[in-house]
Amino acid sequence: MTLFMTRFILGIEIPLCFTYTLGRKTGVFFEGVMKMKTLFSTMIVTALLAASLLSEGCATKSMNTVQNAQTEGIPMMVMDQRILTDPSLSRSVYIVGVNEAYTEDGYRKVQVQLYNRTRRMKAFTYRVEWYDKDGMLIGSPLDHRTPTQIEGGQRKSIPILATSPKAVDFRFTFMESLAK
Amino acid sequence: MNYKFCMTLALAAALFSPGCATKTTYVDNDSSRLIANVDEINIQDFARAADEMVQSIIEDCISTGDLEGVDGKKPILAISRIVNNTSMQFDTDLLIKRIRTALLKTKKVQTTTTLNLARSEDPLAEMADAEEEIITEERMKHSYSLSGKIIEVTTRTRNLRQSSYEFQLTISNRRGLVVWEDIKTITKQGKKASVGF
Predict the structure, then answer these.
(1) What chain B residue is nearest to A146 in terms of C-alpha separation?
(2) B33 CB within 8 Å of a chain A CB
(3) Domain boundaries, chain A
(4) CA-CA distance, A19 to A24, in Å (whole number)?
(5) Mutation for A interface: B29, B35, B55, most A CBs within 10 A
């Protein structure tokens, strides 16, 4: 019962470990083994968690979008290869695709299209590495990780222009923000 | 007595254990584990602003062929005044040198160490250039100049501070006509410095 109420109040964003603990305790409760004291402490923990998640700082705000129905620009999509090691991040910072273009002088420009499939804002950092025709990394004094955010339900495009004419291949890396 | 001794020993062990020691570690320049301050422009902010400016210069100016040199030669870009209008004191070369290095690597622009608004960056090259000027009776002239300003805007609520740093750069030709201009803003919020961003 407690578990059901918690899910109903908080939506689908319940941390997995808490669900497990709560479920185990609820099961014990229905078996008649849980004492009154344990029940109260579970309720207090549930209330505190609900209050913290529903507070202003964590309020879920999703973004609505409108655009022209028949887009004139035709993006040239790139076949990509993905290595996902953080499932939580790939839910919030879902990579829709990568398209490319070239400047008049032949500099390569790539654009990563992202979509936040959750209702929660996600802060993350990204970096792009450029490689030459021999597969060697092109180092630069401009190398850095860029911190950014994506709101719930937002579609975001990150365009990057290669600052070296030698750049032929690219690699984007995304990482959840370390700032607490 | 024995109890006190044990307690002291345990406390000392806890304090001097490796976990509590403040170690100095090296961090990659492109790491997200660098220190970030609200009321300062950190090294990663200069790199980010320079990177975005260089991308803009290449896309809007170099790639389109808008920068033209004299007699088919590469255009010479000189560095003019870069004004620091923030409350911080820093060397503007943290921004400009990065931009200059990246532009030189494009092989489409020539930069110079002698044509500067202030003193020459390379006095020896300046002397040699002066000698060359006497021999050839021809003075090296820059085609374009880069100028700019860095501005700070701060605001705060009861327990949160916000600082915005606006980087404004302009490339002008010899007549003062602007051939490229852009603005990049970096905004930071927080209470205190943090490791990682």
Answers:
(1) B48
(2) yes
(3) 2-58, 76-176
(4) 8
(5) B55
| A103 with B59: Cβ contact below 8 A | yes
Q: What is the DSSP letter of A19?
A: H
User: What domains can be seen in chain B, in order of their start residue?
Assistant: 37-195 (3.40.50)
Tell me how many degrees the CA angle B91-B93-B94 measures, rounded to the nearest 5.
Answer: 80
B98 vs A142: CB contact, 8 Å cut-off? yes
**Is B29–A177 a contact, with Cβ atoms under 8 angstroms apart?**
no
Q: What is the pLDDT of residues A140-151, one digit of tens each?
A: 889 999 999 999
- Residue bearing tokens 């100095």: B24
pLDDT tens profile B124-170: 888 888 888 888 877 788 899 999 999 999 999 989 999 999 999 99
**Cβ contact (<8 Å) for A125 and B32?**
yes
CATH top-level class of A76-176: mainly beta
B63 contacts A103? CB cut-off 8 A: yes
CB A153 within 8 A of CB A64: yes
Q: What burial class does residue A113 get, using C-beta atoms within 10 Å of its C-beta: 0-12 exposed, 13-18 middle, 19+ buried?
A: middle
B32 CB within 8 Å of a chain A CB: yes
For residue A9, the SS3 value is helix
Q: What is the ipTM of this complex?
A: 0.81
- Beta strand A122-131 with A146-150 is antiparallel
Residues of A in contact with B58 (CB under 8 A): 103, 107, 161, 163
Asked whether the beta carbons of A111 and A158 are under 8 A apart, the reply is yes
